[in-house]
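Example record

One chain of 200 residues, shown exactly as stored in the release files.
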Amino acid sequence: MTARHHFAAGMSVGLFGGSFDPPHAGHRLVSLTALKALQLDRIWWLVSPQNPLKKHPPRNSAARVATCRALAGHPKIFVSDEETRLGTQYAIDTVRRLKAANPGVRFIWLMGADNLAGLHKWKFWDELMSEIPVAIYPRPGSTLQAGISPAAMRFAPWRKPANAAASFRFARAPAWIMLDGVLSGLSSSALRHHRGKYGN
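Predicted structure tokens for this chain:
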């Protein structure tokens, strides 16, 4: 089952995938910035059942979706556990299924600069970059590293300047852009550590 009924042909939708364990204000900041800068119609938070690169299992998916919905609090931010419903494990598979189920919708993959820095560790990362335009949000300590990462170097010819953000929704993959935005030091891993340390 897919959420095709939420999006109409011609819409531009940002796909923001992650474990969101826990979600935090930084996720909302990225979403609101991307909505405005990229002139998107919707942001779709894809709450993943797991992250193959992380050793610890995330909390219950339903609990994370509920927390995300409470935090998002915006009519243009849609939250779902679509990857659980689809049974997909890798981002490339999710993207292909959503594109097939939502013809005419322009999708953009959203990620933080820390994810771009380590994107070459993802399964089929080069196929993902070739399948969908990617918008990168700057992160403290990661933005410079992201710019010289294997993924950035491999796809350097297809990088768009930050001032092209307003028209990026019409770009065809491969295409990627580093957005301008307020830096947030919040991270889910740090919040998990804090929660564990103080029993919250």
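Notes: Residues 10-198 form a domain with the Rossmann fold fold (CATH 3.40.50.620).
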